[in-house]
Amino acid sequence: MSTVNEKITSEIREKVRELLASGHVAAFLGYTSGSVPMVMQPLIIRTPEDADRLEWNSFCVLNLANYLPALLKSFEPPRRPGDPPPEGPLPKVGVLATGCWSRNMVIQVQENQVDRDRVVVVGISSRGMVDRKKVLAAVGHRDVTAVYEYDHSLKVSGPGYEREINRWDVVRDNCRTCVHPDPVIFDHMIGDLKGERDVADRFRQVEDIEVLAPEDRWSWFSTEIASCIRCYACRNACPLCYCPTCFVDDSRPQWVGKSIDKADTAIFHILRAYHCAGRCTDCGSCESACPMGIKMRILTRKLQKDVLELYGAEAGMDMQSPPPLSTYKMDDPQDFILTESIKGEEK
Amino acid sequence: MNDISKSKGAWEPKIIAFLCNWCSYAGADLAGVSRYQYPPSIRIVRVPCSGRVSPNLILDALRSGADGVLVSGCHPGDCHYISGNYYARRRFALLKRFLEFVGVEPDRVNFTWISASEGEQFAQVATEVTERVRKLGPATHLLKEF
Fold first, then answer.
1. Cβ of A121: how many Cβ atoms within 10 Å?
2. A156 phi/psi in degrees, rounded to 5
3. pLDDT 10s digits, A167-176
4. Domain residue spans in chain B?
5. Which residue of B90, B107, B133, B143 to mutate against A (max A Cβ within 10 Å)?
6. CA A79 remoteness from chain centre
7. Which residue of A21, A140, A234, B52 has the smallest Cβ count within 10 Å?
């Protein structure tokens, strides 16, 4: 009997082979196994024969939307700024999308990074991805040479040991609190839609910190980012970060220094998270990409919570509704404005 | 920072105020012309609109040694550019909550609306913000030691 992921893998291969063979898409962006266990690598294939290289399992942690704009651009004739757009229909590109990835694609379409008509989305309802750091912790950070995935458990083995771990115990934090596992946009669907998940306290991680005193919050924040080596893996893994020149690379003015100075690292993390305000879909790529195990996702999660509380919006859920920070209402909450709060106190 | 400001007792807060050209800057000007007293701790940076004030500017002020930041624009509905302060309001609301989340004291970063005719209110706000920041003491969290 084949597992859920084996079934998904074979369905993906079949669908992609069909799309490439019919010439409907010029390339397909999916996943293949990496060179070590628990690491999957994004793969772009261009021929139907290569479809068999595609794989699907619980370690596809990076957001494929991240690679989409550059992949689309690679099929456009080169042109300089100001040149007219290329004439005629351009080749289409296929891509796999779970709930959060598809929401990032919606954002990319809204922000004119991706042309929806040129993307063929093959949707998969996400079962939650596994955090390899959690697996490593579960086996006491011993070497892992093989991981076999069943539907609800993982068989992890290494030199001199073999362990079976409950899958849900090692699923990433963001997937555990995810309420939208289904793709928002798709042209083809692998498997069925699951519907919204019901999560009791989805912002629990954030609330646990909010209740602390300011000094304790600062010590949590500064301890959390203390090990940051400023490799910018979190930025590079993020489909929202596509500015040609990132604020960290600006030298006039230089917003943040390039060393691992405490203040600079803090400002980097504050600004990186803030740039994702109202756009972050909590895909968890940043946290999965971090080599130091920093939980920077809590920062973007906080912004997500506030955007939902203040403006009732969730990023990428609807192609028609504008991103929350690109719009406004006349009566947006403003108790934080000093003159307004003084007025309130007088009343 | 010079040595006098570092020595205890003589410490006075340094507050960077980003004031929009059309309302708050004129309001500050009116406060001066009308001879309202307010503490000299406010350093004014004139910006075209409160919508121009990006979080980068606010954090850069704190990084460079400001003890507090004040951002002020036109009242909602009065923006010279029609809607700049509406967009700014959303951004500032999130930024203020977010900075508090990572442990920056709530009174460090302040936002107000001051119109060109509110000279007296500007003096009041400047006094209020200075007092609040004075109570907190020098800002150290995001200060970079050069």
1. 23
2. -105, 130
3. 999 999 999 9
4. 3-136
5. B90
6. 30
7. A140
The pLDDT score that the predictor gives to residue B4 is: 47
pLDDT digits (tens, 9 = 90+) for A251-283: 988 999 888 899 999 999 999 999 999 999 999
Is the full-model pTM beyond 0.90?
yes
Contacts of A339 in chain B (CB under 8 A): 112-114, 121, 125
For residues B6-24, one letter each, b for 16 or more C-beta atoms within 10 angstroms of the residue's C-beta and e for the rest, the string is eeeeeeebbbbbbbbbbbb
* Interatomic CA distance for residues A137 and A165, integer angstroms: 11
Query: Which one of A209, A216, A328 has the shortest CB-CB distance to B89?
Result: A328
- Give the CA distances from residue A2 to residues A55, A148, A153, in Å, rounded to whole numbers and listed in that order: 14, 12, 14
The reply to whether ipTM tops 0.90 is yes
Q: Which fold has domain B3-136?
A: Rossmann fold (3.40.50)
Q: How many CA atoms lie within 13 A of A213 on its CB side?
A: 2
A25 SS3 class: coil
Structure tokens at B127: 């006094």
Residues in contact with B120: Cβ distance below 8 Å, sequence separation at least 6, in sequence order: B31, B34, B36
Using only the alpha carbons of chain A, give its radius of gyration.
22
What is the average per-residue pLDDT within A69-83?
90
| Phi, psi dihedrals of residue A51, rounded to the nearest 5° | -55, -30
Residue A274 to residue A68: CA distance in whole angstroms: 23
Flag if A214 and B144 touch (Cβ within 8 Å): no
User: Which residues of chain A from 298 to 327 reach within 8 Å of chain B, CB to CB?
Assistant: 299, 302-303, 306-307, 310-311, 324-326
Residue in B56, B100, B114 nearest the CB of A339: B114
Q: For residue A1, is pLDDT > 60?
A: no
Look at strands B42-47 and B109-113 and give their pairing: unpaired
Interchain contact, A270 vs B125, CB within 8 Å: no
Q: Residues with Cβ < 8 Å from B10, sequence gap 6 or more?
A: B4
Pick from A263, A306, A328: which is nearest to B97 by CB? A306
